[in-house]
Amino acid sequence: MQNKWSKVMLKVIVVGIMAITFLFFVITNREAINQGLSPVASVMSRIDNVLSLPFRWGKNLSDSLNNLLTTYEENEKLKASLATLSDQKEELFAVKNENEQLRKTLGMQEKLTAPKKISAEVVTRSPLLWWDELTLNVGQNQQVSTQMLAVSDKGLIGKIAGVNQSSSKLSLLTRQDVELAIPVKWIVSDKVIYGLLSGYDQKGGLLLISDINSQEELKAEGDVLTSGLDGETVADIPVGQVLAVDNKARTAKVKPWADFSNLSIIVLVGR
Fold it and tell me: Does pTM surpass 0.85?
């Protein structure tokens, strides 16, 4: 038993002496050891760089894809914001334009001396019949009749052609397939000439006056207003300015005051 214990103690002492000797050797020869390991460490570092290259490339690719996806999402959000801003801008422009027309039309309405004045809004205007007719949101319930004239913010635009309970159809002066035959008066200096507003020259954008009662030489000047001589329509509604005459045919061409391309709020006038 004692012999066995002696052998164990001997082994412990030998291992301890070897450990102390190795530690002393490492401490006293540190620089030499480091220099000897440097080539090995360099080679291992290069091998590690080569082996880690696919992983680094994969990580860079993943980062690039994430950045690309983030940029795409931001662009989509920006496009949506711009589209919304554009829609809001168009709506604002439409509202401002309508309010401006309403203000001007109300100003015209105050100037008119007609016994009956009814404000109306354009609810339908077909592109196929843009220069012929449109539909208004007022009808018999608002006392609209077929003899009423329609006025925009600048002047006469047409005549009511049909009425039902809640809406009415307006024939425009620019219509070519129907003769509205609205009596007008042509004021030249101190003279007044009477005739009928009977047609429209689409190429020149001019209204036609025929059945002129004067036998004197016609001159391309003066303003035209409604005369009310038919006993049904209202007088003194501004129509336009005479730009051309035909003394042989006894006709005159008038540039209308109204803008027929943009109509939203109008006033109906009647007796």
Answer: no
Domain ranges for the chain: 1-111, 116-270
Q: What residues of the chain score a pLDDT lower than 50?
A: 37, 40-41, 43, 50
CA distance linking residue 216 with residue 225, whole number of Å: 20
E-strand ranges in 61-179 read 116-124, 133-136, 149-151, 156-163, 168-172
Instruction: Provide the 10 A C-beta neighbour count for residue 180.
Output: 19
Phi first, then psi, for residue 171 (nearest 5°) are: -90, 125
Q: Quick one: fold of 116-270?
A: Thrombin, subunit H (2.40.10)
Residue 79 is predicted with a pLDDT of 75
User: Is there a contact between 219 and 188 (Cβ–Cβ < 8 Å)?
Assistant: yes
Structure tokens at 193: 């000439």
Residue pointed to by tokens 């425009």:
172
With a CB cutoff of 8 Å and minimum separation 6, the contacts of 205 are 255, 256
Residues contacting 165, CB < 8 A, separation 6+:
139, 140, 141
Token pair belonging to 200: 């429209």
Beta bridge partner(s), residue 175: none
Report d(CA 262, CA 173) in Å as an integer: 14
Q: Which H or E run contains 84? A: helix 30-111
Which pLDDT score is estimated for 93? 57
Are 184 and 149 in contact by the 8 Å Cβ rule? The answer is no
What are the structure tokens assigned to 255, written together?
A: 């540039």
